From TrEMBL:
PROSITE patterns in the cross-refs: FE_B12_PBP
Claim: Cytoplasm is one of the keywords in the record: no
Record has Signal as a keyword: yes
Name used for this protein in its record: Iron complex transport system substrate-binding protein
Annotated keywords: Signal
InterPro entries: ABC_Transporter_SBP, ABC_transptr_periplasmic_BD
Pfam families, per the entry: Peripla_BP_2
Signal peptide feature range: 1-23
Length: 369
């Protein structure tokens, strides 16, 4: 038995020795960021500024200790979704000591420069503002290269390329390419299947942060609204600007959608509905039921037929958006997507990519399985 075990160990070492080493990125390098800007990266970044804290999620999918490379970051993720922050803090206590450089909307130039960073990463929605352009100019004149990433404006098409961009910049190409391939394969699966079923899907209302005291912000065709279109379904608010807008209860009642989808965040921030990291399914389902119990929503066809669903609003800020796409596919076209299971996809992401596992009810249906 000892000889057999020794032989197995020897074989294992030989197999490990035969594996290729992690491909190294050669610096200095020039990359094009999400805005098409050419950015020169002199050396592997070791001290990174994050203009949006939500981009820590992206880093955590390609780096085993993303906190270790932070020089400073914005507090928006910590403020909006403290449950995710707590998960990172449990795994990487040093996150509590990372200096704050802004709140995701404003940036302290003085704080940023005092940290002696070698790279800054901004989200597209930050960079495309007067303050964002000032921050880019200020940092780059001070010798800090700035890379803009975009997991927001056209998530289903942009996510894979932006993950590859981060992988190249941070010398994590192997991991980033693996996640990008994973994302692309699953998006393609949805698109290919819809292409083979030309019949239109149901009509859908996606209601952001439902609140019985006021009505209602409907997603248009942009952001998470694009996840309706990929399934071949029809957004009742498609005539609105791409980002969506305020609609009246009369508009919703007249459209009488086949399916109602609410978005929100943990703890019922801005809404009576609570969903997302750290939220138990029972809480998510109970608060979703409360959200559609008002006098006009409860009479909608979607509510009467129990085609009511909800999901975490911040899927439009992180590369985990493939989970939302799969949830939409399963909810809206169950006849062609019965085999798609976002729970299984999340489990695979946690096993293969996540430095910090993602837990909680990120999506929920009013009708339990």
């Amino acid at each position: 038995m000892i000889l057999r075990l020794s032989a197995l160990i020897a074989v294992a070492f030989l197999l490990l020795a035969a594996l290729p080493a992690r491909a190294e990125v050669a610096y200095p390098l020039t990359v094009k960021d999400a805005f098409g800007r050419e950015v020169i990266i002199a050396a592997e970044p070791k001290a990174v500024l994050l203009g949006s804290g939500f981009n820590l999620v992206a880093l955590s999918l390609i780096h085993p200790d993303p906190v270790s490379i932070l020089a400073g970051w914005a507090s928006d993720m910590k403020g909006d979704n403290p449950e995710i922050y707590d998960r990172f803090k449990d795994r990487f206590p040093a996150i509590d000591d990372v200096p704050i450089i802004g709140d995701g909307v404003t940036v302290s130039f003085e704080a940023a420069l005092s940290l002696k960073a070698d790279l800054a990463i901004l989200a597209n929605w930050q960079a495309d503002t007067d303050l964002g352009r000032q921050a880019i100019d200020y940092l780059e004149r001070s010798g800090v290269p700035v890379v803009v990433v975009d997991f927001n404006s056209d998530a289903l098409n942009n996510t894979a390329d932006n993950m590859r961009l981060l992988g190249t910049v941070l010398n994590r190409e192997e991991q980033a390419n693996a996640f990008a391939d994973f994302h692309e394969e699953r998006v393609k699966r949805i698109r290919d299947r819809v292409a083979g079923h030309k019949e239109p899907g149901p009509t859908v209302l996606m209601d952001a942060f439902p609140n019985p005291e006021k009505c209602c912000y409907a997603y248009g065709t942009g952001g998470l609204g694009a996840f309706i279109a990929i399934t071949g379904s029809r957004n009742i608010a498609e005539s609105l600007p791409a980002q969506g807008g305020i609609v009246s209860s009369e508009f919703i009642v007249a459209a009488d959608p086949d399916v109602y989808i609410a978005t929100a965040s943990p703890g019922g921030t801005y809404s009576t509905f609570s969903v997302g990291p750290g939220v138990a399914p029972e809480e998510a389902r109970e608060t979703l039921a409360r959200a559609v119990s008002g006098p006009f929503l409860k009479n909608l066809k979607a509510v009467k037929e129990e085609r009511v669903h909800g999901l975490w609003n911040f899927f439009n800020a992180v590369p985990l958006n493939i989970l939302a796409a799969e949830a939409f596919a399963h909810w809206l076209r169950p006849e062609i997507f019965a085999d798609i299971d976002p729970d299984a996809t999340l489990a695979e992401i946690n096993a293969r990519f996540a430095a910090v596992p993602f837990d909680g009810a990120y999506w929920i249906s009013l009708k339990a399985k």
